[in-house]
Specification:
By secondary structure, the chain is mainly beta. The protein has one helix and five strands; from the N terminus they run E-E-E-E-E-H. It starts with 7 loop residues before the first strand and ends in an 8-residue tail after the last helix. Residues 86-114 have a biased composition (Basic and acidic residues).
């Protein structure tokens, strides 16, 4: 009735991103003060319900994927609105370095080796 709700899950591919703002948060007794960034993204959105895909923009300062990444989103296909769905990301995914398949395979081999063996 008033536009509340209606968000559904989907995935999106990052087409481009640009830096909108960069700042340092305040240093307090509970926080060290960290550099923060706000990005605007162009996303190719694929709703999970089979609705036609669409291209949209969104802004985010918590999660910063790069061009080509596939990310979980919440979307409204009828109004073509989209936002990144940080709730569906694993906590480590937000800051995880991007590794090649070869690095991942090497890591898995080292993980399954006997204790005390030398790394490959």
């Amino acid at each position: 009735m008033f536009g509340f709700g209606g968000w559904q899950t989907g995935t999106a591919t990052v087409v481009a991103r640009r830096l909108l703002k960069e700042w340092r948060s305040a240093h307090t007794e509970h926080s060290r003060g960290m550099k923060r960034r706000k990005f605007e993204f162009i996303l190719d959105v694929h709703p999970d319900d089979g609705s036609p895909r669409f291209r949209a923009t969104c802004k985010d300062s918590v999660f910063d994927p790069v061009q080509g990444d596939t990310v979980p989103v919440l979307c409204k296909p009828t109004s073509e609105k989209v936002k990144l769905d940080a709730g569906r990301l694993l906590p480590g995914d937000r800051k995880a370095p991007r590794r090649s398949a070869a690095e991942d395979a090497r890591w898995q081999r080292m993980k399954s080796d006997e204790p005390g063996s030398t790394p490959p």
